[in-house]
Each structure stands twice: as structure tokens, then as C-alpha cells.
Amino acid sequence: MKKNILTGIRPTGNLHLGHYFGASRNWIKLQDNPEYDFHLEIADVQALTDHFDDPSKVRENVYELAMDLLSIGLDPKKVHLFIQSQIPEIAELTVFYSNLVTMARLYRNPTVKTEIKQKKALFGNEGESVTYGFVGYPVSQAADITAFNGELIPVGEDQLPLIEQCREIVRKFNSIYGDLLKEPEPLLSSTPRIKGLDGSEKMGKSLGNAIYLKDSEEEISKKIMNAITDPNKIKKDDPANPHICMVYYYHQLIQNPNLETVCEECKKGHRGCVQCKKELIQKMNEFLDPIREKRKYYENHQEEVEKILKEGTESARATAKETMKKVREAMKINY
Ligand code: SF4
Question: How far is the CA of 275 from the centre of ligand 1 (A)?
């Protein structure tokens, strides 16, 4: 019997290298594992917790994200790719589960705590920026997971508290209404944090330091030419330290076969930064070309993307409907 895997991504922008090397590349591997039935949710409702004042942005990003995912090799024949907002059973479960968790417990959730801190730092005032929907998003995640009988959830270490929160809700539900829901297990995968072009510890849209999978050759060239290198290398033939240089970091990331030479020549001062950046631009374009080519296909066949999302959502909804029926029976609200 196949195990159900569920994961999700918020449609808040296009995929960049941070997403690709962080998690999405792993999804492409998981979809080929015959032991798993893989559900991938485009979490547009969750994206609204931050973008409720401009939902058109979220809508646009749903299709953008779907195209990015298909371009990196996500196969809709192997994965149920679906849109969260089109499955009302998730919203229904969220309401029922909201009675099974206290506000105090949600505020204690380390992931929520960290995000509240970040909002506070950004807006200065928690009261104005932290909504009920935001604090309650782990409840909505528990609904996402259980609607599709999620048994294994691919996560990084930092998301473990969200899985634990879901397990608690499941245990509470089962203790009151009977043993119906499965407690999900985390499927810990290494989701390395990818550094930005500016040397920041994290690549991110808001930080303006990202390389997007859909970037054109011109955009790549401009971004890499501005990447941070060893600040002590002033002249072309100054020896430098590649390990503090973002250009070298990206040579490594995309596995430039010439890596050893880059390192040696940099250390000996036998390579100038402009030459080194030009080489990276060429290698980066070679790396991105097959993704761009696929994306172009989907950009020219939007109706195919819509069909994939429609069919994925229909198949996922069938499972959610079954779960909802059982939940209503267990709660004796199946009038
Ligand atoms: S030569 Fe290359 S690796 Fe060395 S500092 Fe310049 S850009 Fe970085």
C-alpha cells in the first residue's frame, strides 16, 4: 500500500534557486518513488494570510508557480498538483479543528513565535500586523495534511513544530470522536539554505538577491556581474579566497565541472573576477536552459496548465470529500 505524502508551497512569487536547491528538487525525486502517493498543494489560502489586501497577486502567482514546477520536471501524472482554495473541505476541517487547540498553544508554537517576531520587527506593532488567520495557520496546515490522509510530510528541521502541532490536533480529535485520523510523520530532508547574490545567509524575493529559474540571459548576466566577491581582491592578479566569494559559491552550487581550476586559479591570482563571472554566467545559462525551454512551452500552452491544475484539484478533492464524510460521521454532524 502506497504511503500518502503531502507538501505545500505558497504562491508568493516565482521559484528561485533557493527554492530549487532547498526543497523542490527533492520533490522531483519523491515523485518517482513508487512507494508514495504524492500530493503537492499550491497553498493560496495560506498566501492570503500575508496578502489578503491584494488577492490578485496570489492568483497570478498560482499559475506562475505551476509553470515553474512543471518546468523543473514535476510530472502531473505522478503528482496530484492542486489549488488549496478550490478544496472547500480544507476550510471546513480548519473550522472544526480550531476548537481543538488553544490560542496559548498556537502562540507557543516556535515557528509561529519566530514569524510573529519578524512581523513585529517589520511593522513595529504586533497588534496591527498579526491576524487571527495568521496565528491559526498551523490549524489550517493540520487540515491540509489530514484532508489527504497525509502520512509523510517532507520538512526541514525548522518546520518540525508544525508537524507536532498537527499530531496534537489529530490526537485530540481521535480522543473525542474516535480513532479516525492518522498522525503524520515528518520526512526529514536536507533543505539547505541557499545564500543570496549579496552574500546574505538566505536567498529571498524581499531581499532582492535571488536568481529566478525564469530569469532571462540578460537578467542573469546583470545579477552575476553585481555579485559579491572577495573584497580584498582589488587587481585582476591579486590572490583571493574563493570561499568568501558568492561567484565561487554559485560555481559550486550548479556543479561547474571546472570547479577545481576556478578555485586554484583564484587562490593563485591567475584569474580575474570579470572572467570568472563570465564563466559563471555561461554555466548558469546552460543550467537554466532546459528549465527555460520547458517554461516557454507552458507559457505558450496556458490551457494545458489550467487543465493540469483542474485535474489535479479534482483528484485531490475526491480524497478530501471522503475524509470529510468520515469526519462528519465521527462528529455526528452528518444530517
Ligand atoms: S576570481 Fe572568481 S572566485 Fe576568485 S574572487 Fe574573483 S570571482 Fe571570486
Answer: 9
How many Å apart are CA 318 and CA 177, to the nearest integer?
23
Calculate the alpha carbon distances from 285 to 20, 79, 85, 288 in Å.
15, 28, 35, 5
Residues with CB under 6 A from ligand 1: 229-230, 233, 240, 242, 245, 247-248, 262, 266, 271, 273, 276-277
One CATH from 3.40.50.12780, 1.10.760.10, 1.10.240.10, 3.40.50.800 for 217-296: 1.10.240.10
**pLDDT digit string (tens) for the chain, length 335 residues:** 899 999 999 999 999 999 999 889 899 999 999 999 999 999 999 898 877 888 888 999 999 999 999 999 999 999 999 999 999 999 999 999 999 999 999 999 888 888 788 777 766 665 567 888 888 989 999 999 999 999 999 988 888 998 999 999 999 999 999 999 999 999 987 777 899 999 999 898 878 899 999 999 999 999 999 999 999 999 999 999 999 999 999 999 999 999 999 999 999 999 999 999 999 999 999 999 999 999 999 999 999 999 999 999 999 999 999 999 999 999 999 88
Give the H or E element holding residue 81.
strand 79-83
From 224, 245, 261, 278, mutation site for ligand 1 pocket: most ligand atoms within 8 A of C-beta? 245
Check: CB of residue 18 under 8 Å from CB of residue 59.
no
Tell me the C-alpha to C-alpha distance, in Å, between residue 137 and each of 81, 97, 115, 306. Answer: 21, 11, 11, 27
**316, 87 in Cβ contact below 8 A?**
yes
Residue 225 CA to ligand 1 center (angstroms) comes to 11
Q: Does domain 3-194+302-331 have CATH number 2.40.160.20?
A: no
Helix, strand, coil percentages, rounded to 5, for the chain: 60, 10, 30
